[in-house]
Specification:
The complex is a heterodimer of chains A (348) and B (285). Chain A has 348 residues and is α+β, with helices and mostly antiparallel strands. Chain A has two domains: 195 residues, no CATH class; 140 residues, no CATH class. Chain A is 34% helix and 21% strand. In chain A, the strands form two sheets. In chain A, strands 3-2-6-7-8-9-1-10 form an eight-stranded mixed sheet. With 285 residues, chain B is an alpha/beta fold. Chain B has two domains: 94 residues, Translation factors (Elongation Factor Tu (Ef-tu), domain 3, Beta Barrel), CATH 2.40.30; 131 residues, Nucleotide-binding domain of ferredoxin-NADP reductase (FNR) module (Rossmann fold). In chain B, the strands form three sheets. In chain B, strands 10-9-8-7-11-12-15 form a seven-stranded mixed sheet, with helices on both faces. Classes of the chains: A alpha+beta (348), B alpha/beta (285). Chain B: Keywords: 2Fe-2S, Electron transport, FAD, Flavoprotein, Iron, Iron-sulfur, Metal-binding, Transport.
């Protein structure tokens, strides 16, 4: 892959030059967290850690009309927005690669594919915080799924060019880019060493398929099920969660019917409920088990890696401390420190 | 660099179709014949599906749901469904008159592995609404009778009036080239001329070469355990015992996730599973 150098001072100029590809989106501070927002590049936060909602929102919007029905006929509907999305960390790009694998297999999803084509993806390196564990999920380095990838070396970026579209993006402003020198490579090696040593959290997932399998009947699921609020936050913030619901909605003003696709969650009670009221997963524990079995066992057996990219969003977001860290610990019979652990002691 | 994918036809776009014929099979189960309107698609779609596959049927503003195809691709022209009035969509569907428009997507699902069944004895056990997908395979086998060994069809219903396709099976019983046994759990009016009892009692009539038999069961969940035990007693191997399952589905294409069990999407990896699958994927049954 071709790698070039971009001076930090030219960064804003470069990103502005990309506006011809579409709207400029990137990580912006919001309260104590970050969000992907449409903004000028001066406002992008280069030190941003995980955003609240992952970049999947650009490819499978939270809610989108996929078909419209009027005068007795259906017609296809999609609002494709051309965007330049800046600031995706390696875990985020790995998650999008899972999305790509998933949505382009079997019956390729035309909506997803069009969104993918309309977006220019610019990755950005990061330094892990205490909730990142992408070293364990082997998603701390990425070599495909982006158009450009920027590694921040302080006063300069190294820029990996990952696609012909990325090549086109820098061609117009070629004068901003320089060839990489031996000194740059040394700086990168130093940075990389620091980055790799910065991981504080370790969640080894290697043995998980067997452990989850053996723990299928474990009472720990009931304990967590008791604590779970079925709020669906874990699935909304998870960058590898792909599930959706389809609902028909009548638009009175337009006198037409919209077939809507909405994010959906396997922890919702209605998720596995069929007409007539039978629910294949009535208990919250059953639904939680489905989520973690799917991430750690199912996906592993199908694609050879877990459907977890180590972003730490569930650790930050779950209001009742049910997340990849506590679940893995609990299944390995380690202390989790979660409040429901004490609940178990009380019940026992 | 990720592999570029060609953007094909939108798989969410339904195909316009009409109800050409409908009649009640029982109090709450109705038979529907539905014909695709586009003349270029009628034959390709209705002659190429596999028994055991399903279609997504929708009514705008009401919703979309999966239904087993109960017709056979060996008799193309229309799709047939056998539908119980149980929810929002089916209630609306039951209000529609003949010639009304409905929308279809599909066919979806793996269907029965018919090519693996060729040359084998076939043993069907149907209970209640489970007859819907099994009728498709049975009619397919009867239309291609020379491809299969012995065929046994066992069908149970609660009472005579609950038996779906009753008259059709009465006629099929008269055929000499396969064995059809019907039973009812109870016969309150005293009119039933055949066996009375649970469907597993009918196994006393079954004479198949178990090692070379494809055994197929579909019915209410409670039935599976008893019927599968009977198959195993006969000596049918795990991978030759087939069952077809029901789940909530919104896309039919392995995407929306609502039918997922373990790492299997019932809509694309199923709805037909073998006993081996069922033993190895928790939560299938």
């Amino acid at each position: 892959m071709r790698v070039l150098k971009l001076k930090k001072g030219d960064f804003v100029l470069f990103l502005k030059s990309l506006k011809r590809f579409g709207e400029l989106w990137g990580p912006v501070k919001k309260g104590d967290s970050y969000v992907y927002a449409r903004a000028e590049p001066e406002n992008f936060d280069l030190k941003a850690i995980r955003t609240i909602i992952p970049a999947k929102k650009f490819f499978l919007p939270k809610k989108s009309t996929i078909l419209k029905f009027k005068n007795g006929e259906w017609r296809e509907h999609q609002e494709v927005v051309n965007r330049v999305i800046f600031g995706l960390h390696p875990c985020e790009i790995h998650a999008l690669n899972i999305y790509h694998k998933f949505y382009s297999r079997l019956y390729p999803d035309t909506y997803y594919l069009k969104n993918r084509e309309a977006n220019l993806i610019i990755g950005l390196s990061c330094i892990p915080d205490d909730k990142c564990f992408c070293a364990n999920t082997r998603t701390s380095v990425v070599d495909e799924g982006f158009d450009l990838f920027l590694t921040d070396l302080g006063d300069k970026f190294l820029v990996w060019i990952g696609s012909p579209k990325g090549e086109t993006a820098i061609r117009h402003v070629g004068h901003l880019f320089e060839t990489v020198t031996a000194e740059d490579i040394e700086d990168y090696i130093t940075w990389r060493k620091e980055r790799d040593e910065a991981f504080q959290l370790k969640i080894p997932l290697e043995g998980m398929p067997e452990i989850v399998s053996f723990s299928y009947e474990s009472s720990i699921w009931d304990v967590m099920g008791e604590a779970c609020l079925s709020c669906g936050t874990c699935t909304m913030v998870c960058p590898t969660c792909t599930c959706f619901d389809i609902q028909d909605e009548y638009d009175i003003k337009a006198e037409e019917m919209n077939r809507e696709r909405l994010w959906y969650s396997c922890v919702y009670r209605e998720y596995s409920m069929v007409a007539g009221g039978h629910n294949f997963r009535e208990a919250r524990s059953e639904r939680l088990k489905l989520w973690y079995t799917h991430k750690l066992v199912g996906f592993m057996s199908k694609y050879g890696s877990p459907a977890c990219v180590g972003c730490g969003r569930c650790i930050v977001s779950c209001p009742v401390e049910i997340n990849i860290l506590t679940v893995v610990k609990a299944l390995k019979k380690e202390k989790t420190g979660a409040f429901w652990e004490r609940m178990e002691v009380k019940n026992a | 660099m990720l592999e570029a994918k060609k953007i094909n036809k939108n798989p969410y776009m339904p195909e316009k179709a009409r109800i050409v014929r409908k009649y009640d099979l029982t109090e709450d189960v109705r038979f529907f014949q539905i014909r695709i309107i586009n003349p270029d698609l009628v034959l390709p779609l209705t002659s190429s599906y596999k028994p055991g596959q399903f279609m997504m049927l929708s009514i705008p503003n009401v919703g979309e749901a999966p239904f087993s195809i109960t017709s056979t691709p060996s008799r193309p022209g229309v799709f047939e469904f056998c539908i119980r009035k149980v929810g929002k969509l089916t209630t609306k569907l039951f209000e529609l008159k003949e010639n009304s428009v409905v929308w279809l997507r599909g066919p979806f699902g793996n269907g029965f592995p018919v090519e693996q069944m060729v040359g084998k004895d076939l043993l069907f056990v149907a209970g209640g609404l489970g007859v819907a997908p099994l009728r498709s395979l049975l009619l397919y086998a009867l239309d291609n009778r020379e491809l299969f060994g012995k065929i046994f069809y066992l069908h149970g219903a609660r009472t005579p009036k609950d038996m779906l396709f009753r008259e059709e099976f009465f006629r099929l019983k008269e055929r000499d080239d396969f064995e059809c046994y019907l039973s009812v759990d109870s016969d309150p009016l005293g009119v039933w001329p055949f066996d009375i009892g649970v469907v597993t009692d009918l196994f006393k009539y079954v004479k198949v070469n178990a090692a070379n038999t494809a055994a197929v069961v579909c019915g209410p969940p409670v039935m599976y355990k008893f019927v599968v035990n009977k198959f195993l007693e006969l000596g049918v191997p795990d991978n030759q015992i087939f069952m077809t399952l029901e789940r909530k589905m919104k896309c039919g294409m392995g995407k929306c996730g609502q039918c997922v069990v373990g790492h299997k999407y019932v809509c694309v990896d199923g709805p037909v599973f073998t006993l081996w699958d069922v033993k190895n994927i928790r939560g299938l049954i």
